[in-house]
Amino acid sequence: MANVRLSSISKIYPGDVHAVNDVSLEITDGEFIVLVGPSGCGKSTTLRMIAGLESITSGDLFIDDRKVNSLAARDRDIAMVFQDYALYPHMNVEKNLSFGLMRRRRYPSRLRSIFSGVYRKNRAAEQQDIHDRIRRSADVLGLKDLLNRHPRELSGGQRQRVALGRAIVRDPSVFLLDEPLSNLDAKLRGEMRTELRRLHRQLGATMVHVTHDQEEAMTLGDRLLVMKDGVVQQCGPPAQLYEQPANRFVASFIGTPEMNFIEGVIEDGSVFKADGDVRIQLPKDRWPSLSVGQQVTLGIRPEHLELASDGDAMFRGEADVVEQLGDRTDVILANDHRRLTARIASGSGLGEGDSASLRADLPQAHLFSTDEDGHRIATNRRHNQQTSDVQD
Ligand code: ADP
Question: What pTM was estimated for this model as a whole?
């Protein structure tokens, strides 16, 4: 297996399309990294540059500390799995698994006739090796009983497993996965996620996975690299991105339903004030850099809002949407000024059209700057520790 290092990598496509801007990332041996972000943010281009399928405009790429910028894709010892399985329809599963290997190892026919004796011996050993590899990867992926089937006789999930199997038989240093689960229905996607995690554990492989689905990214990755417009927004383990988002973009991208944002201003005594009679006493000393009159955006996740009695409510409105999800209920409360989403415990009896009030678990709230980068305003570490709150 291998480590992969991107050092200030950029990609400019013809027409001055800046697809990837100055991305640096160190992927350690055996790590599962997920590149995540909305469509068009440059994830696939980054992956394709690692694969060698796309040239690098500037910056350096290292695999196992060896610079590979100009190394051909086939010489990089990587295997890539695509969204549309790309299986050969006329071959059965076994042939699909072995095909890449046979092609990679085929000798020119001229050499074959000159060294026919040696060739036959080598060929037999090679076929045994391929056979063993196929058995092993079929074992790992639960494909043993399907080896004789053709792709059309397989379910979507089984086809995707064969596509993964084709990567595994090659025993590459690095697996690159480009939205491999996107074509599957929700249930299968869930199953395949579990399978991918297990596979990763079992193989101990370095994996780089691309998805636009934040939930998939959160469940799969040891670390996530969040991108927007070709620029890295934040890189870290899932919990860090959720608890300490670097900016408003990451805060809204990670987590479902999306974080609520309220624009307001800081008043004397650490009071956050916003349109619609919102006055929230912020925990004192939590944001030491705040100044009176400063414009800020308060961010609070739906799961950190709960129904409240009028006395300690920060927000009053009418339930516009009530979604019963079994163990919990998602509610959108609206008034003339804003709409807030709250994830509350089920059984509250709240129905659409009912009036309700919400209060916030304020130690879980974030403040963001109102300028374009929307960075999260730093909190006081000491304060965090005393209140066993999340730490910066
Ligand atoms: P993602 O994988 O995050 O959806 P991509 O890496 O595919 O994003 O694309 C990033 C940006 O580069 C997009 O604006 C896309 O339109 C552009 N792009 C991708 N491939 C090409 C190409 N071959 N030529 C020109 N522009 C491209």
Answer: 0.89
